[in-house]
Amino acid sequence: MSFNTIEANRRAAQFEDREQLWLFGYGSLIYKAGFDYIERRPASIEGWQRRFWQGSHDHRGTPEAPGRVVTLVEAPGATCMGMAYLITPAVFGYLDHREKNGYLRFSTDMTFADGDHADGLVYIATPQNEAWLGDAPADAIADQIARSQGPSGANRDYLLNLADALRGLDADDAHVFDIETCLRQIEG
Ligand code: SIN
């Protein structure tokens, strides 16, 4: 997969003059930081829902056999729970590399558990990116996840870690939990 969003994200940097800023994570960024942060707080964003519709050719699959990872799709009225990290701009070098397979940053309002708000940067992969896989039945998504493996490990671990992390946040996410149920059936 030659598509790489590192340059596009670098050109779009929206934080040259900031000492610190918030990142909102909704997928692996909930359960695996892998970078230094100043503060970490559960948060949510409005109007988006999590979907296993993005191909992973570099982390949880390979170019020949991509896995599936989450992105966000617009859903008026929906709330997406995740984890907010207060970070310095230097961390975006690491994040842009990690999210390079189709994810672009955008800024949106986040709500913390105590009702406070802040702007947060979010990595999102849209249908326009070349690694996009799109919708499929939950059992087909689980089947692809069960078979996929990449440099960051088994795709099933991504799904199960995410489902556990969402339970830890008291997040209601039927899409993720349905795929988890299908995976457990496949694995017997
Ligand atoms: C995120 O976690 O916010 C982006 C998707 C991922 O890296 O799993």
TrEMBL record:
Entry-linked CDD domains: GGCT_like
Keyword Metal-binding: no
EC number from the UniProt entry: 4.3.2.7
Protein name, entry field: glutathione-specific gamma-glutamylcyclotransferase
Organism listed in the record: Salinisphaera aquimarina
EC primary class: lyase
Keyword entries, A-Z: Lyase
Superkingdom of this protein's organism: Bacteria
